[in-house]
TrEMBL record:
One Pfam family here: Self-incomp_S1
Gene Ontology BP terms: rejection of self pollen
Record's protein name: S-protein homolog
Subcellular localization: Secreted
Source organism per UniProt: Acer yangbiense
Xref: InterPro entries: Self-incomp_S1 (IPR010264)
Main location: secreted
Secreted found in the keyword field: yes
Highest taxon of source: Eukaryota
Similarity field: Belongs to the plant self-incompatibility (S1) protein family.
Annotated GO CC locations: extracellular region
C-alpha cells in the first residue's frame, strides 16, 4: 500500500517536472513591463529566418520559419536583459531585444529585421540600426 502511494507521488513529481521543462515562457511575476515586437522586414522571397530569445539564459521563445512581413511579440515580465539571436541562411545576428537601461521607460519595443541589420524603434515608425548580420 505504502509502495503504491510512493510510486503515485513519484509519478506526480515527474509529470510536474516534465510540464515545467516544456514551458517556453517566463513565469508571471506581477505587472507587464513592456511588449517586444520583432518584424520580419527581409526582402520579398527571402528564405525563412529563425529567432530565439532568452532571459538569463532561459528561452522565452523560439520562432521558426518566420516569413517576410510576419511579426512576433512577447510580453516582458521582468526588467531583465532579453537577448535574441537570428539565423537567416548562412548569416547570424544578435541583439538586446529588451535592455532595462535603454527601454525601461517604453511600453513597446519594436525590432525590424532587414537584410542590412536590426533596427530599433519605440513607436514602430522611426528606426535606428543597432546590430548587423554576420557570417557564421
Ligand atoms: C525614465 O524616466 C525617468 C523620469 O523621467 C528618468 O529619471 C529616468 O532616467 C528614465 N529612465 C530611462 C532608462 O530612460
Ligand atoms: C507596426 O507597423 C506596421 C506597419 O505600419 C503594422 O503593420 C503593425 O501592425 C504595427 N504593429 C504594431 C504592434 O503596432
Amino acid at each position: 500500500m505504502t509502495k503504491l502511494v510512493i510510486s503515485y507521488f513519484v509519478q506526480i513529481v515527474i509529470l510536474a517536472l516534465l510540464f515545467n521543462m516544456g514551458q517556453t515562457t517566463v513565469e508571471e511575476s506581477g505587472n507587464d513591463v513592456a511588449s517586444v515586437h520583432v518584424i520580419n522586414g527581409l526582402p520579398e522571397k527571402s528564405k525563412a529566418m529563425k529567432i530565439e530569445c532568452s532571459l538569463k539564459g532561459k528561452s522565452v521563445g523560439i520562432f521558426h520559419d518566420l516569413v517576410v512581413g510576419d511579426e512576433y511579440s512577447w510580453i516582458v515580465k521582468e526588467k531583465g536583459l532579453y537577448f535574441c539571436e537570428a539565423i537567416w541562411g548562412g548569416l547570424v545576428g544578435s541583439w538586446h531585444a529588451f535592455q532595462p537601461s535603454r527601454d525601461a521607460n517604453h511600453t513597446s519595443v519594436f525590432w525590424l529585421v532587414k537584410h542590412n541589420g536590426f533596427f530599433l524603434s519605440w513607436d514602430n515608425s522611426t528606426w535606428i540600426r543597432r546590430s548587423t548580420w554576420e557570417t557564421e
